[in-house]
Amino acid sequence: MRGYIVKRLLNMIPIMFVVSIVIFLFIHMIPGDPARLLAGHQATFEEVELLKEQMGLNNSYIVQYKDFMVGMLTGNWGNSLKTGLPVGDMVIPRMKPTLILAIFTIVWSVISGIAIGIISAINRGKWIDYVVMIGASSGISLPLFWLGLMLMQIFSVQLGWFPTTGIDGLKSYVLPSITLGAGITAMIARYTRSSMIEILKENYIRTSRAKGLSEFIVVNRHALRNSLIDVITIVGLQFGFLLAGSVLVETVFAIPGLGRLLIDSILFRDYTVVQTVLLIFTFQFLIINLIVDVLYGVFNPKIKYE
Amino acid sequence: MKVNTEIKKKQEDYKFESPMIELSRKFLKKKVATVSFFFILFLIILAIFQPTPYDISQTDYSNTLSKPSAEHWFGTDEYGRDIFSRIVYGTKLSLTVAIVGVTVGAVIGSILGLIAGYYRGIPEMIIMRTCDVLLAFPGLLLAIGIVAIIGPGLINVVIAIAIYGIPNFTRIIRSSTLAIKELLYVEASQSIGVSDLRLLFKHIFPGTVPALIVSYTMRLGTAIITAASLSFLGFGASPSNPDWGAMLSSGRNYIGIAPHMLFYPGLAIFLTVLGFNLLGDGLRDTLDPKLD
Q1: Membrane-spanning residues where (chain B) (predicted)?
Q2: pLDDT > 90: percent of chain B
Q3: ipTM > 0.85?
């Protein structure tokens, strides 16, 4: 197992390398001259040229890429073109809200998604199953920024239970987390249901019932364990959705997180911040995929890691 | 002689039914999918004929932010414009953006998928590895990235939707192509010397159509949400356009006083996407009995 994790971590290096090239090229394809942007409207041609020289924009792409990578690896992420502050100082405080939101959301939505899926599967064809399936189809089709706005309208504006925007204690994460998790819950419930339905048809389930185990044990110990193997893959895929969704949710609820920072930086053409945030997102995504693969092995003893 | 006529009679009894009719009958049995199909048809008719009771940019400063009434079914916005008319007009925008974007993505993706699946080797490796890189980014983030490079605007949203649809279609068509390529009739066509181009487009491509239709329908739903999200974030349609996402974005400022400005455009997005998703589910069940 340890060998496998090390191997996977080493495998991430070439992927990060390719991604960093893509992001580097992407940043340099964005129309507009960062030096002119930083120098301001009144700057003369000479001033812009001087700034270009200082920022290394006149060097060849290869040299620029090398500088960019050395900076990334040594923690020198450059200064924001908009505020002039070091990018690290801007990015690090933004990680906390995004992380809290992500952890909150994934925990409640995985638990409730699996629970709803099981309830639906063991009541297959009854009204509760139909309600769940309609809810799941709707949850997947809901534009989550609209859901967020509606929740905000009802619970913050009308009832005043939660703050409308910004971060003010853990209470502020409740509505954003519900918004972000609704689609994930729906997706997980759908997969858990179909996987459970398949597994409950298996012979070994009939055997467990025949030898007199209670239905609770049959479902929760014998069937669930196997269906978790399918479900965990879907959970892994949901993290990508979580990253993209957090951009929207942070915008709706004005949460000062990484997603919001990315959008603001793109709107202001703040390249140094954009490239750092994108690299962080990619890195996160790869690490999460690794964790999911390792968990996959924990739940499925048939898989042997070499 | 008598025997012959009997055989003839039997042959006449056997009516050949086109698979299209058979599949349509199977599809119409699925109530949810049928309702979604007619709902989508209704949206397309709305988009074409534009039965807007008011001009979409006609302002009325004496009647701003008013609640839904008999005169203005969905109320009015901050400039006194009729929200119902703007949503109807928005149907045209949303459907056009989604259909054009997804169609372009599907055409390019299908061609790449056919090439990758048929020729294998180096072209397949290049195409599929590029797809992996594109799919490594979560959908919306990729679309945001593309719009960040080429700039905001509705046309660029269409381009972003097309680009990020390509890898999905490539994957699906490639795997269908791989399966169809092994079939006997393909080998037969090759042996009588049919050209690659003809084989690919006349003999293999039609076999991939069922898979293509299903994912095309599903992608339309995703594309509508993506376009609305991009507009909402400020990367898509300008706020003066009656785009559903842009309407939600400007309605945010009036959440306390005019919630109807948020409710109806979002409902329009939700129902349209739900329609496409349920239609896609139904089509999948009809076209591919294995996937139940």
Answers
A1: 32-49, 95-119, 140-163, 213-237, 257-280
A2: 33
A3: no
Q: Which of B138, B234, B274 sits opposite A141 (nearest CB)?
A: B274
Q: Does B47 reside within a domain?
A: no
On whether any CB of chain A is under 8 Å from the CB of B7, the answer is: no
DSSP state of B70: S
Which chain A residue has its CA at the smallest distance from B270's CA? A142
User: Is B58 a domain residue?
Assistant: no
Distances (CA, A) of A260 to A133, A176, A241, A285, B244: 33, 13, 16, 18, 21
Total structural domains in chain B? 1
CB contact under 8 A, B255 and A157: yes
Mutation target for B interface from A26, A124, A145: give the one with most B CBs within 10 A. Answer: A145
Determine, for residues B138 and A152 on separate chains, whether the beta-carbon distance falls below 8 Å: no
pLDDT value at residue B291: 41
CATH architecture entry for A95-299: Orthogonal Bundle (1.10)
Could you tell me if residue B120 is inside a domain?
yes
What CATH number is given to the structural domain containing B185?
1.10.3720.10
Q: Domain of residue B218: give its range.
A: 79-291
Interchain CB contact of A240 with B (< 8 Å): yes
Is B140 inside any structural domain?
Answer: yes
Q: In whole angstroms, give the CA distance from residue A283 to residue A77.
A: 15
Dihedral sign, Cα of residue B83, residue B88, residue B90, residue B94 = positive
* A19-23 average pLDDT score: 80
User: What does the domain layout of chain A look like in residue ranges?
Assistant: 2-74, 95-299
> Could you give the angle at the alpha carbon of B170 between the alpha carbons of B168 and B176, nearest 5°?
105
- At A107, which helix (H) or strand (E)? helix A87-122
pLDDT at site B20: 82
Q: What is the mean pLDDT of residues B101-126?
A: 92
pLDDT tens readout for residues A240-263: 778 778 889 998 888 888 888 888
A104 interface with B at CB cutoff 8 Å: no
Nearest to B274 among A19, A138, A244 (CB): A138
